[in-house]
Structures
1.
Amino acid sequence: LTALAVVREKESGSITNLYVTPVTRSEFLLGKQVPYVLLGLVNFALLVLLAVTLFGVPLTGSFSVLLVAAVLYVVIATAMGLLASVFTKSQIAAMFIAMLGTTLPATQFSGMMTPVSALEGSGALIGRIYPATHFLTISRGVFNKGLGFADLHASLWPLAVAVPVLLGLAIALLRKQEA
């Protein structure tokens, strides 16, 4: 959804409002991102509730670590959408880039289907740096292994690093004036 946030304004022409207001690029992008982050966190809460109540999956580890990881991951996922939206000119292109940049690596390289340790070459590199890999490690650790912060901090820091990197790229690539 965030992939459509900026590019929709480009297509409709309302991006001109950004050009003539004193709003900074970071304020504009964060304003676009916050509603989707909140929506993502509502989805997270509902999924955890369903996992525990309906499917009977016990939450044996630290919920606070899982919550911190979820906040970071949702910010990262929405930032990836903003990044796709910033440098494309159509909603179709933004959706295509966002889907290719998120779905394919998340399913193929994050350890969801194949362990990252079994990947080779560029697939292994993508698997080691892709945020979904670290979120999966944290969620498996919290749900299945009863792990806490001491055990999962090595997977939290890559998520924390990815947030300013992705948001910084989106802010840097958004032009305040039409080219």
2.
Amino acid sequence: TRIEFLFLIDHDDKFKKKYKELLKKYKKYFLIKIYINKGIKFNSERINFLAKRSNGKILFSVSDDMIIKTKNWDSLIDLETSKFNENTPYCIWPSVDANKYKFLHCAFPIISRKWFNILKYHSYPKFYHFYTDTWICELSKITGKFLLLKKLLIKTFHPENNPKYADKTYFRLRNNSKNYNDKLIFYRHRNIRKMHALKLINNS
């Protein structure tokens, strides 16, 4: 009853009407908020747009290339997060069957509301699409404010693991990302990452 789903649908998406009709069926079970995207280009901006409009104490960014395999995953997250003080920033790392990068522990990190309120973002806004999860995981490692939740299993359907999962969205992101260099931003903004880690530590 406390789960809140927020969706951002591109205004020119050919399935926009079908998405809205489908979500309407579930509104009697969940709190669902639907927004239409009319100009947001960066994926990090999309996520931050929704995060700012959410009310939950826990922020879990999900996508269409993953499935949560664990039953009662919401109750499990509830149980584990109860171990933290509500005013403490923290991050939870689910167990993912296949990570895209060896240096990235988790492709779907979960953050607390306090974490978001301190940094004023969920995904580092300088990124176009890639390295957002890596950034969060790096902050987690620097601060030590994370919990490895092995019982929460996520199965991925990412094109880099299996080409058959490549769709139009994947190719659009890939083509558009040629104009940006998230990897370069990640390494050049190392000092900013350390500063943001200190913010999390000092505001605990």
